[in-house]
Every structure is written in structure tokens, then in C-alpha cells.
Design a protein that fits this description.
The protein is mainly alpha-helical. 67% of the residues lie in helices and 0% in strands.
């Protein structure tokens, strides 16, 4: 969906007799009253959007080069640049670059970095969407049980044989999507009362479902063969193993569809952030918006969990931190959070595979150690933001 901007000027506030078709142009004003931070009141302009996303894109490139450099065997930046320059020029790679360095770069680190970036982008985008829908910074696919549901769907797929062939690998994201959608349907049906969706009931239901789904996943793990059971346990802790380029292509197809549709809801998210009553008064069908966002978040989360396991807290920490810096307009918040989430997970995975090299730590442990304290911070010191 194409966003409309003004040139270096503030967005126009609609008159009191605003029509429903123009309500999506409104910025969430609730953020402006929540604190004195000027970033919450910043006006979105075309140059500000381009400048912010441009800086974040350059940061992604810089962090990617650092991730390609670090590892059990560091590779010089000069060798990295020579490999990619030769690839872009479509010629034989320079003989000065060793075969080992070339193999590590193109077959191990590059696919893994691309996977980490896509997974981080997706989890952060889903977090933004859920936080806009629920108006709560604790909303996160990991906290609400969506990741556990997607993991259960993927685990069932592995149990019946999916993932052992190329066709099976392409079916795993669909299994994860089915599991994530099942979790969201259960959460929605359980927490809905009097045609509303209470925030605290939703979070409590997510916690309960997390426990139930985790128990079912442990049961499936216990009946698998020892080798497959060990792989399942490592996968559940959240890990980014170097994928094949074929599996990356299938993942990109799933995520491109989900993220494109999710990004098309940016203006609706702006209105939903005002609250259900305000959104309804502006002509937004809130129940329909919930269903659409729920399905899209299930699609994206299912595809991600099927290849990376349960990597927690990115969908909560990244959107909240980005919102504090650039404000609450989802036309900027959503793409910025996606870039920051991808960058954060690339860096976290590099730390996971180099901290005690050659042994690798599951990246889910790194993100949990970073996100857990932030979760406690929100609970204890930002109670006003959880109302």
C-alpha cells in the first residue's frame, strides 16, 4: 500500500467530520501524551523516512561484514570484499582468496547471515503488529504462545516425516503456520468475552498455552529416535544452522507474502493504536482487523519457527526500543523495527557461534539473556505502559 507524505511539513490533522476512508492518515496521538520524549511527537516526512531507513540499511551492511569476518577462523575484510566483487563481476574468484575462506563465506556464513536477517526481520515485524493490535509492549509471539504453537506444528511435521526431502522442507513452514494459527485461534476464542479482547486475559491465555504446547513438544521429542530427538532439542532452543540456498528460497517465498500483506496494514495499525473505541468511531472494523493481523502473524511466525526454532523476545525488545527512539508512527516503526530486528539477530548469532568457539551456543539463549531482563524492566518499572 502506498503511503502519502507531505514535503518537509507536518501531516494534516483531519477535521472533526472526518470520513472513514481518511482515518488511516491519522497518527497515534496517544504516544504524544505518554511522556516528554520528543521522538514520540516527531512528525513523519519523506526525508525523515528516507534518512532513518538509509542509516539503518547502512548499519545492516556494516554488521553483515562484521559477521562475515568473525568466526572460528576469522577472514580478513579484504578477502571478503574480493570474493563479492568477483561474484558481482561474474568472473573467477581471485586466486589470492583461499578455497577454505571462499567455502566458509559462501557455503556457511553467508546463508546463515541471510537466514538470521530474515528471521530477525520477521519476528520484529510480528511484534510490532501484535503490540499495535493489543496496545501492550509485552505482546510478542514468544510470550503469547504463537511461537510454541508453530513449534508444535513443525514438530508434528517432523514426526510424520516432513523435512527429510526437499518437498518435506517446503512443507515444514506450512506445518508451522498451521500450528501458529491454531494457537491464535485458541487464544482468541478463550480470551474473548462480550465481543472484546481483554489484554490481560490474552496474555494469561498465552502463558497457559505456552506450557501446554511445550509439554506436547516434549512428548513428541521423547518418542523420536535418539539422534532426531537430540536435533529436536537443539532446534527448540533456537538455532540458525547454515541452510541451503534452496531452502532459503522457499522461506523467502513464505515470508515475502506474509510481510508484504503485514506491511500493507501499517495505516490500520496507526488507527488501532488509538484504541478500539476510537478506531471504531473512525470507521475501522476492529474485529476484521484483528483477524487479518492474527492470520498474517501466524503465517510469518510459523515459517520462521519451522527453520529456526523458538527464538524469543526479539518481537518484544526490538519494537519497544525502536519506538522509544523514532516514535509510534507504524509507517516508519514497522520497516525500521524489521531492519533493527534483522541486524540484532545477525549480531546475536555471531556472538553465539564465536563466544566459546568452536562450540556454538544456541542463539535463543543469547536473545533470552538479552530480552529477559528487559521483560522484567517493563513489568517492574514501566507499569504505566502496561495498562
Amino acid at each position: 500500500m502506498r503511503a502519502r507524505f507531505v514535503h518537509e511539513g507536518p501531516l494534516k490533522r483531519p477535521p472533526a467530520t472526518v470520513q472513514p476512508s481518511s482515518c488511516a492518515d491519522m497518527l497515534p496521538r496517544r504516544a504524544a501524551s505518554e511522556g516528554s520524549n520528543a521522538s514520540h511527537r516527531a512528525i513523519l516526512t519523506r526525508s525523515r523516512l528516507a534518512k532513518t531507513l538509509g542509516i539503518l540499511a547502512l548499519t545492516v551492511i556494516a554488521v553483515s561484514l562484521m559477521c562475515l569476518h568473525f568466526g572460528a577462523q576469522p577472514i580478513a575484510y579484504g578477502e571478503i570484499l574480493r570474493v563479492f566483487v568477483d561474484i558481482l563481476r561474474d568472473r573467477k574468484i581471485d586466486d589470492q582468496v583461499s578455497d577454505l575462506a571462499r567455502t566458509i563465506l559462501l557455503q556457511v556464513r553467508l546463508p546463515r547471515i541471510l537466514l538470521g536477517f530474515m528471521v530477525g526481520c520477521s519476528l520484529a515485524s510480528v511484534g510490532v503488529a501484535l503490540q499495535a493490535l493489543l496496545r501492550n509492549p509485552l505482546a510478542d509471539p514468544y510470550v503469547l504462545g504463537v511461537s510454541s504453537g508453530a513449534a508444535l506444528g513443525a514438530a508434528v511435521g517432523v514426526l510424520v516425516g516432513a523435512g527429510t526431502t526437499f518437498l518435506g522442507e517446503t512443507a515444514l513452514p506450512a506445518c508451522g503456520f498451521a500450528g501458529g494459527l491454531l494457537a491464535l485461534v485458541i487464544i482468541y476464542r478463550t480470551a474473548t468475552s462480550y465481543e472484546r479482547l481483554p489484554i490481560h486475559s490474552l496474555l494469561l491465555t498465552g502463558v497457559i498455552l505456552n506450557a501446554i504446547f511445550s509439554a506436547l513438544i516434549m512428548f513428541i521429542t521423547s518418542i523420536l529416535e535418539p539422534n532426531r530427538s537430540y536435533g529436536m532439542m537443539a532446534w527448540l532452543m533456537g538455532t540458525l544452522t547454515a541452510p541451503t540456498y534452496g531452502s532459503l528460497v522457499s522461506l523467502v517465498i513464505y515470508l515475502s507474502i506474509g510481510l508484504f500483506l503485514l506491511f500493507s496494514q501499517m495505516r490500520v495499525m496507526n488507527v488501532l493504536a488509538l484504541g478500539e473505541e476510537s478506531a471504531q468511531s473512525l470507521g475501522v472494523d476492529t474485529e476484521q482487523a484483528k483477524r487479518v493481523i492474527f492470520v498474517l502473524t501466524a503465517l510469518v511466525t510459523g515459517a520462521v519457527v519451522s527453520v529456526s526454532g523458538m527464538i524469543g523476545f526479539i518481537g518484544m525488545v526490538v519494537p519497544h526500543a525502536v519506538r522509544l527512539v523514532i516514535g509510534a508512527d507504524h509507517r516508519l516503526l514497522l520497516p525500521a523495527s524489521a531492519l533493527v530486528g534483522g541486524t540484532f539477530l545477525m549480531g546475536a548469532d555471531t556472538v553465539a557461534r564465536t563466544l566459546i568457539s568452536p562450540t556454538e551456543i544456541p542463539v535463543g539463549i543469547i536473545t533470552a539473556l538479552a530480552g529477559g531482563p528487559f521483560f522484567v524492566y517493563l513489568l517492574l518499572w514501566r507499569k504505566d505502559r502496561l495498562a
